[in-house]
Amino acid sequence: MFFFSKLFFKIYSKKLNLKLIDLETNGLDLQTVIGPTGKSLTKKILLLQNTIDELKISDHFRVVFKKL
Length: 68
What we know:
The protein is α+β, with helices and mostly antiparallel strands and about 70 residues long. The protein has one domain. It contains 3 helices and 2 strands; from the N terminus they run H-E-H-H-E. Strands 1-2 form a two-stranded antiparallel sheet. The model has no long low-confidence stretch (mean pLDDT about 85).
């Protein structure tokens, strides 16, 4: 599995001489990756999930580039 961030696409677009027009993601659902957990671990996962969501880190993106 690969994980990407908005910064990755900005760097990638510059290297390919493209302009990043739009980026959408559903994020990365840690509960799906890790599976069922106990109550205390679930609280920690939710804290980490908030950070992941704010940074727009995901395993699935829809990206639109424009050729320069």
